[in-house]
Please model this.
Amino acid sequence: MQRPTLLLLLLVFTISCNNPKPTASVIVHGGAGYVSTDDMTEQQEKEIRETIEKSLQKSNEHLANGGTSVEAIQIAINILEDSSHFNAGKGSVFTSAGTHELDASIMNGKNVQAGAVAGLTNIKNPIDAAIAVMEHSPHVFLIGKGAEEFALAHGMETVPQSYFYNEDRYIEHIEDLDENNKKFGTVGAVAIDKNGNIAAGTSTGGMTNKRYGRVGDVPVIGAGTYAENGVGGLSATGHGEYFIRNVATYDIAAQVKYGTSTLDEAGYHTLMKKLKSQGGDGGVIGIDKYGKVVIHFNTVAMPRGYINREGETVVMIDQE
Model:
């Protein structure tokens, strides 16, 4: 009479061994595009790698000490936003009017809550504002002056537009070269904490010389950012219009949730097949429900990194 119970226990034990509780981890990206290490000075490459390493190590340290995935996302992206090497925060590109308009979003897979901001002109770290919207507002998406007023009311640090000035970005702006729109540079992070809760976030300065208040995929939940426990988390980068039209990050998650694909297989299909066939360039990073990292991009480079299960920091820039 005991055999069915024993068999059931053995089955549960086997499943548990095959799908162990995920180790807390984080993966980050610095934007897919067409600037490879061949186009960088040794110093630029060194600084980019060091910034990604710092982002990973600080956020992973927080996770190891019991921090949440949302907190890890904030730590990781803040470090990338504070670097002039990425098109987010301090390194944001110029609009056609010679100004800076910043966007960001965050999603918590534990409760599928989300926050997003767009068109910020004076907030130092847009991801902080997106988190504040998620945690302290009944809304999901705030834009422009209203978003800035909300961020200020919740203690966000403000800076003058001159804070975002960068000589290389300014040259791109005044020369208005077509290839500049292919540099991208959005930053993002996906994390899973010790409790298996997944979060994803993305931050950007948008597209060089964008006009008419253009907003890309980054602050659009399901396009540039998506997270759901039991499915995975994703952050996208690239030509935002394609990611919006295809609801790209949700499209990837839906293939997992309602189909039989892994997050890695779904990411490959959406990015490398679906978007690419339409002319959509970019990349996506993710973490699945087991803590496995996902990386896909169809451009020549995408600065990215993660800490593997052996505790080693892995940082890459070009296709490898």
Q: What stands out?
A: The chain is about 35% helix and 20% strand. Residues 124 and 166 are 15 Å apart (CA to CA).
